[in-house]
Amino acid sequence: MTSKKDTNIQEHEEIYSLQQLMYEYSKTIDTYSDPTFVRISQLLDKKLNQLQKHNGQKCFD
Predict the structure, then answer these.
(1) I need a labelling partner for 9 at 20 to 30 A (CA). Which of 19, 24, 51, 58 fits?
(2) What is the tens place of the pLDDT at every residue in 3-61?
(3) Residue 36: how many other CB atoms lie within 10 Å
(4) What is the phi-psi region of residue 21: left when phi exceeds 0, alpha when psi lies from -120 to 50, beta otherwise?
(5) Within the chain, where are the H helices?
């Protein structure tokens, strides 16, 4: 069974990994409209929104 702390750590690690991937990939492309770059950006945005929503709920619990 995973605890809330473990889940939060995993979420942060996933976000950090996506940020690293996005940074490294950005060095290899000519334009930010590259489909892979856009997809990574969308995944990162989704994860950040989930984290924000999750943290926002904690404030009201």
Answers:
(1) 24
(2) 778 888 889 999 999 999 999 999 999 999 999 999 999 999 999 998 888 777 654 44
(3) 12
(4) alpha
(5) 4-26, 35-60
- CA dist 41 and 3 (Å) reads 28
In the structure encoding, which two tokens stand for residue 1, read together?
């069974």
What's the full length of the chain, in residues? Answer: 61
Work out whether the CA dihedral 24, 27, 29, 33 comes out positive or negative.
Answer: positive
Q: CA 61, CA 48: separation in Å to the nearest integer? A: 20
Nearest C-alpha neighbor of 21 from the set 6, 7, 34? 34
Query: What six digits make up the tokens of 48?
Result: 């950040």
